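Human:
Take a look at this sequence-structure pair and walk me through the tokens.
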Amino acid sequence: MKRLLVVALLVLAASSGYRVYGSPETGTGSLTLPQPAPNTGEEAPNFGADRRDGGNFELSDEGVYVLTFWSTLNKDTADARPEFEEMARDYAEEGVSFAVVYVSNVPESEEDVPYDVLQDGSGELTAMYNVKRVPRLFLIDDGTIELVQNGYYQENEERLRENLDRILSGKT
């Protein structure tokens, strides 16, 4: 019992010292740490990739892109898919390019969809965009990231539509 009390006091003292003397960079649990790059307001990494249908996809410094990272093993991906598909159809005539990067296998159901389907078998795109969890979505306007969404929530579609409408209204 005496040993347990000594260990508990040592752990308490060490954690208290860490919280008091640690800076935000030490990851003390505060929310002051920045989101992983790339983030809103930063330059979007350009890339070219093969589409699943055999064509090429290019993300450049010109145009409006909605780029999202999905996995077949993730429930949020399945939940996000219908709204993403509807949005891609709604903005097709506006010149917005929608693309999905699968970090795992691409499902067979991704045949006749209104967005480009890419597979990141090597993990290069996932690393380039620092994707640790899926879904992770980027709204990119002329090479600058305008919006980053981590995870999937019902409010994501509305927020994405508001940002797309704002960007497109400034282009007309």
